[in-house]
Structures are given as structure tokens and as C-alpha cells.
Predict the structure.
Amino acid sequence: MKAINVGLLGIGTVGSGTFKVLSRNAEEITRRAGREIRIAMIAERDVGRAKSLAGSVPVTDDAFKVVENPEIDIVVELIGGTGIARELVLKAIENGKHVVTANKALLALYGNEIFEAAQKKGVIVAFEAAVAGGIPIIKALREGLTANRIEWIAGIINGTSNYILSEMREKGVSFQDALKDAQALGYAEADPTFDIEGIDAAHKLTIMASIAFGIPTQFSKAYTEGISKLTSEDIRYAEELGYRIKLLGITKRVEKGIELRVHPTLIPAKRLIANVEGVMNAILVKGDAVGATMYYGAGAGSEPTASAVVADLVDVTRMHTADPEHRVPHLAFQPDRMSDLEILPMSEVETAYYLRMRAYDKAGVLAEVTRILADLGISIDAMVQKEPSEGEEQVDIIMLTHRTLEKHIDSAISKIESLSVISGSVRKIRLEELNRN
């Protein structure tokens, strides 16, 4: 049977891993796919470097030559970004080629346009590698859990942020020191904004939410809050109360619509996901039939991500000659059956909260604070008042609340900060139990 010809756009970290895995496991992959999958052409700006890796495979510095080559069956886009990558993917689709991509930003921002174009042309866009590296979470959501009504997803889906938080907890270091360490080890970019401010996680969460709930990709409506303002004190206090702080991507189906949010979150230390450390990723998915399931593994890296890219290549090869009407839909639901459920603004999200405030060590402070909370219908689950250091007039007060609407807690915080007995701002971190309910 004729081999499937692959055009590889980019042979950097993931591209080189894809080339190696395809070469090393060629026999096994052919047995699974039913025909040989071979890289027939590579596009890379650094042609010399690409040739040193690719051997006899033709290399060009013009990516459009790959997507316009009539001999190419599948285009693998590993360039990244949302500029030229979008043009190339759409041109590949226009030319009737299937696409495999690891580009979460591209799909989070332009997925609706890309999937619609692919649907009209009868080609496949596969993107397992776009979320959580080597963890097969897309296949699990789209196929393995298809019998379920997905209720919620909560995931550690950015290894850089998880490494920083792990270092802050284990070593008691500041955010800045942990970030410098992550950069020195190559876990964080020179400009780490996408990772530490939750943008990368929000791209991935947007894609998962679309598959879980059958809604269009809507990255612009995702609430995003990073970890750069977290302090070692908050991490220590959370630990003392039996919790750990993780940057979570959370999406839930609730009565009013869909929650779509990324932010630091307190999780009970006894939960498995709370014990995921370093650069590893983990995703909890709650389905009505199966209950809670967890997916754990390497969320980035050359060969872990290449594992997902090659798995997509095998899937596309198997379905290459299948009737497009009988393929698994890109976002799990039939394109004409997508939902228009609203993405809720953060003010309408209900969760529990960790509050930390600096207060003057005077009688009646707690009474004033608890009165404000009670007036807004917010009940307290736990409270700790730390002892003042010698010579200090102020103490830390930490409160855990029961579930309430974000707009209510924000109103309470505004009133608490206006009290003369409170110094500075109140620190708010959301809390999720992540139990099976």
C-alpha cells in the first residue's frame, strides 16, 4: 500500500522529536497504521541545521512549498504562533491536506475558522499534542468518555508554573527566586509571561472546554489569573490548613452556563492532583457515568509531545480513506449540533475562598470582619489568627469561606479593606475541593 507522505513544518524541539520517534519506531507504527508513514519534506528557516537532522529528506526554507506540494498527504504544523502558522494551516486545508498541529494558541483563537474550513473540505485537523503534551487527554475527552455528560474538568496544564509553585512550597523560596531557577533549568522562557500569567493554560483549557461541552472555542471569554503575585506566606499558610496551591484550569457546566477560568487554587493536600509536582501535568475529568478520572504525565518536552503528534499521524492515516461523514468530529459533537451555552463572567462563578489580611492587634477586629461577611451571606469554614512578631502591632488573619459568588466576596473585600483596623489589601485565592460530587 502506498506510503503516507508527511510534510513537517518546523524541526525544532517537537519537530526533531517527531522525526526521531517516527524513525525509531517505524516498523511498529507501520503495523499499527496499516501503511508506512514517512516524512517526505521539511520546512525550516535554518536549512543547514534541518539537513543535519533529516539526512536525505528534502528541506526548504519556504513552508508554502510544503503545503502546496501535491505529493504531501498530511501537513504537521510545529511552527507555533498565530500568524504564518494560521496561513499555512488554512492553505494546507484548501489544498485538501490533513493537518496535525501542536499549536494550542492557534486553535484557541482560530479553531472555529480552521475546523469549519476542514469540515467543508472533508479533511481532518488532529491536535492531541496541543494540550498536555504526551497525555492523551483529547482522545479521552472526544472518544473514551463519549458516553458521559462531562460535568467539570480541572487541570494542572502548565509545567513551568507547577515547577515554580513546587519549589516555593518545598524550599520556601520567593516567586522570583523560583522563576530564576526555572529559567536556568530551561523550564521557563526568558519572557515567561504566557506561562506564569496563565495564558498558555487558558489556551489549553479553551480547547478542552469546547470538546467537553460541545461549544465553540472562546478564548477571549476565559478568565485568566497567573501566579506572579503569590507569596511564600500564602503557600505556607495553605499548607498549615491542609491545602496546596496549584495553578488550575477549571471548566464546569453549571445551571447558568459554562465556567472557563485559570487561576491559583487551594486544593486539599489529600487529593492526588495536589501531589503532582515539578513540571508534570495532570487533568481531572468528572463524567456523570464514570465519575472522576485523572490523566497524568509529561505535559511538554521533545519526545513526550512527539508521542502525541505521531499518534495523530497514525489516526489520520487510518481514517485517510474513510467517508468524512463517519469520522470523529473535531470537537466531539457534530458540527450542526454545537451548543450556544454562555461562558459565565467571573462575577457569577461560585466557589470557596482563602482570604488573608493584615490587621491591627486590637479587640473587635474579627467581629467587624465577620459582620461584613455575614451581611453578604458569606459563612466562614475556618479561621486562623497568627501571633504577632515581637514589637509588631499587626497580625495575619487567614479565613476560609464556604462557597459564595465571586461578586459577593469582592464586595466583602472592598468593605474589609476600608476598615481602619485593616492594613493594606486583602489577598484572595479561590478554593476547590475537587471531590466526586
In short: The CA atoms of residues 155 and 242 lie 20 Å apart. DSSP finds 15 helices and 17 strands in the chain.
